[in-house]
Every structure is written in structure tokens, then in C-alpha cells.
Specification:
InterPro entries: ARM-type_fold, DNA_alkylation. This is DNA alkylation repair protein. There is one protein chain. This protein has 14 helices and no strands. It has 249 residues and is an all-alpha fold. The longest helix is centred in the middle third of the chain and has 18 residues. The termini are far apart.
């Protein structure tokens, strides 16, 4: 469905970006691919039917305009794109949040702990909302939440502790995988603790997250991960073990 918003709902800059994006995506709609893409996502979302390279090429030139937005305009734009029906809009949203993470809140002279907390709370609405699914959650967890926690560990690690036991399994998944790009800076004790906190979960996306997070850390410290899996082999799900030791030879 093609969308157009009116001038009184947002600034001119946001209007231009949103309407240009909407028109371009709609004009390149591929119904047959849209059906298969929707089926792959369990028919939860509508699609334009655009694969990532084609989709990104359509709005590559818009990033220069996004860079000109102030913090309130960024929030207005991502709220618009997130609420739009086709999944490509939500994927665009995650890309904005990744690229503009440090500009979402600019109330202080420079990025601060308060900014980080406000930003994380804002990101949470896209992690635990009605359009949350692995394709958006994983990007936000690894490329937005992870870097934020790195910047302000004292303030944000307690939030990760809370998310690890939250009833929303997407927040739990985020707490487990947010360190996936940390490599040698991974907090091993926290990673193992978070995995064990959710070790009895029957949720596929939690079991998969545990295995994925352990597999990423295995690339840095295979002996430690192997020992952890061996020690907890009777507690970890077979899926988590299989994913964790996928590169074990």
C-alpha cells in the first residue's frame, strides 16, 4: 500500500524522505517475490518483494538527507517507517537506528549516560513491539544495543540484567546476543550467566540465541566455550549445543 503523509504531521525534511522512500519502494514492488518473502516470515508481514541489495540501492542517496535531520526528526521518521505495513519499511528503520544511534537524543552537549539510557529506552520500543521479529531484533541487538552498552556500561549493564529475565523473549534474546560483535572484549562471565539464566527456556529463539552467542565467542575462546558446553551439556538444549559447537572440529 502506497503511503503519503501530509505536511502538518511532520517536518518538511521528514516528509520528503518518507514520501520519496515510499514511492520508490512501491514503484519497484514485486508481487511474486513478496508472497515468498511473506511466507518465509510465517505470513506475519506484508512485503514489497525487494531483496536487500535492490532495496538499499533505491534509497542509497537518501542517507545524505537523513544526516541533516535533527534528533526529533529522526525519531519522527523512524516512527513513521516502523508503523508502515510493508516489512521493507521496518528494515529501513533498523538501518536508520544503526547509523544515527548517537544522534537520537541530543539534549546534552555531548553524548552522555543520560542520552544512552534515553536512546536504549527508545530502541526498546522497536525490540519489544508488535512488529518485532528476528530480522529486526538481531540487527538492533548487535549493531545498536551492543555499541550503546559499550559506551555506558555502568548505566546500561543493569538494564541488560533486567532484560535477561524479562517476560518478553525478544528482550531476553537481545541480552544474550548484544555482545556478538565484541570479540575479545566479550564479558565472558556475563555471557555465560545470561545463557544459564535462560537455559530451561523452550522458546526456539532463545535456544538459538544461546547457541549463536556461544558460537561467536567460540571464535575468540574455543576452549572456554567448549568447557562451558561440556559442563552444562545436560542443561543446554540440543539446538544450543549444536549451534555453539558448529565450528568445533
Amino acid at each position: 500500500m502506497e503511503q503519503t503523509i501530509t505536511e502538518n504531521k511532520s517536518s518538511h525534511n521528514v516528509l520528503y524522505i518518507f514520501n520519496t522512500l515510499s514511492n520508490r519502494l512501491n514503484s519497484h514492488r514485486n508481487p511474486s517475490k513478496a508472497l515468498s518473502m511473506s511466507k518465509y516470515m510465517r505470513n506475519q508481514f506484508e512485503f514489497f518483494g525487494l531483496q536487500a541489495p535492490e532495496r538499499r540501492a533505491l534509497y542509497k542517496d537518501l542517507w545524505a538527507q537523513v544526516k541533516k535531520l535533527d534528533s526529533s526528526e529522526i525519531r519522527a521518521l523512524v516512527n513513521l517507517t516502523w508503523q508502515s505495513p510493508e516489512r521493507e519499511f521496518q528494515l529501513f528503520t533498523t538501518e536508520i537506528l544503526e547509523k544515527e544511534m548517537l544522534n537520537i537524543f541530543e539534549n546534552e552537549a555531548e553524548f552522555s549516560a543520560t542520552s544512552a539510557l534515553n536512546t536504549l529506552e527508545f530502541i526498546k520500543s522497536f525490540l519489544a513491539g508488535n512488529k518485532s521479529w528476528w530480522d529486526t531484533v538481531d540487527t538492533l541487538a548487535v549493531k545498536v544495543v551492543g555499541p550503546l552498552v559499550k559506551l555506558c556500561q555502568d548505566e546500561l549493564l543493569p538494564v541488560m540484567d533486567k532484560w535477561n529475565i524479562d517476560d518478553n523473549f525478544w528482550l531476553c534474546r537481545t541480552s544474550i546476543i548484544y555482545q556478538n560483535s565484541f570479540k575479545a572484549r566479550t564479558d565472558e562471565a556475563r555471557l555465560f550467566k545470561y545463557c544459564l539464566t535462560q537455559v530451561h527456556s523452550k522458546e526456539f529463539f532463545i535456544q538459538k540465541a544461546i547457541g549463536w552467542a556461544l558460537r561467536e565467542y567460540y571464535k575468540i575462546n574455543p576452549m572456554s566455550v567448549t568447557a562451558f558446553v561440556k559442563e552444562n551439556k545436560d542443561r543446554l538444549s540440543s539446538l544450543s549445543i549444536r549451534e555453539a559447537l558448529k565450528h568445533d572440529k
